[in-house]
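Anyone opening a protein record will find just a pair of labelled lines. The record below illustrates this layout.
***
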Amino acid sequence: MENKQEEIQKIKSELRSYMNGVLSQSLRERGLRYKLIFGVELPRLKEIASRYEKNHDLAQALWKEDIRECRILAGMLQPVETFFPEICDIWMEDMRDVEMADFTCMNLFRHLPYCSEKAFQLMASEETLVSYTGFRLMCHLLSKPGAELNPRSEEEFLDQAEAAIHSDNPLLAEVALNAKSRLKKIG
């Protein structure tokens, strides 16, 4: 049986074999800041993740790597049962860019039993990336079949969304508008 470090080395080796230099360079030019960016596309990352069982220790170790693809895989391999709110807060402190926020919301955050509470907490942040992540998470929540907000939550959400839409931040305005339009679709 492989230990955690052997698994990480095996994953890095797989990532290296799928490296896309053009995409890697493009991501760097867009401002992504990691020690290493392999430029591996999402379908390949899903293929790699499918070869592993969800594993808390492995996911946490992958997140700590300063490698874009390891962090994306961490979100895919992290079991929701052991991803406590405190760990979510730690990951959010270490979140660097919109791309990672999107992948982490899609692969992990939206499946958390406390995702609704976390979305509201994140949306209320003064930090752009944190607030962005909250709105992205709300987009996922409002896309689920049968999604609805109670009147108090809806009012709070609409207040947050309106503030973001009318802010001087185009990134927040766009994601808040997107989330608000999803609410209208279920209403």
User: Anything to note?
Assistant: The mean pLDDT is 94. Residues 1-82 form one domain. The two ends are 51 Å apart (CA to CA). The chain has two domains: 1-82, 98-187.
